[in-house]
Structures are given as structure tokens and as C-alpha cells.
Amino acid sequence: MTFYDEVGGQPTxxxxxxxxxxxxxxxxxxxxxxxxxxxxxxxxxxxWFLAQYWGGPQTFSEQRGHxxxxxxxxxxxxNRDAAIRWLELMKNSLDQIPExxxxxxxxxxxWEHMERVAAMLINRPD
Length: 126
What we know:
The protein is mostly helical. Helix content is 61%, strand content 0%. The chain has a single domain, classed as Globins (Globin-like, Orthogonal Bundle).
């Protein structure tokens, strides 16, 4: 059984991503990075990526190829403030997932991954 299966599969990842994207339109740092006409596409890509990373379907690779996160985010202005805000919004979303779905061990593993990704994507000085 994969991490993906242990936390409830796609519905859990959809809930995390939906909670995150619900905050984006009103966010002063991240909101401008997401064109309204591509919000649904961005949402799908993040859900596919997280599901795939944690052992779920390979939809991201099938639809988009190798994740290449740094390359795909290179044209966005991702400084330390943006990375911190991404983590804040993601934490808000994770906090909405009940512990019966995402226990402390799984939550900690997911958070550690999110911290690594946020740090890795910084591509501009402060």
C-alpha cells in the first residue's frame, strides 16, 4: 500500500489542492502568478503532481512529461516571501484535512516534502 492509498487516495489530494487554490485569488503575493483563465489547469497539475509523487496514478507524467519543477517555475518570480506564502496557504489547506484522513505521521511527511519543494523553487533574491 502506498502513501497515496494510506491517506485516502485522490479525494484527499483533491481536498488539499482545492483548499490551497481557494486562497489564491485573494492572495497579494501568489494570486498574480495564477492567470484566472488557467486556475483550473494549475489546480489539476498540482493535484496530479502530488498524487503521483506519493504513489498514485502517473497522470502528471502522462499529461505533462517529467515534472521538472524548477524549469516549469523558472518564469515565475519565486523569492523567499513567495515560498513562505506558498507554505502558509498550503498549511491552511492541510489544517482543514481531518486527522482521521491525514494522521500526524503522514502529515509530517507531506509537510517536509512541501518545505523542500518550496525552498527548491526559490529563483529570485529577496
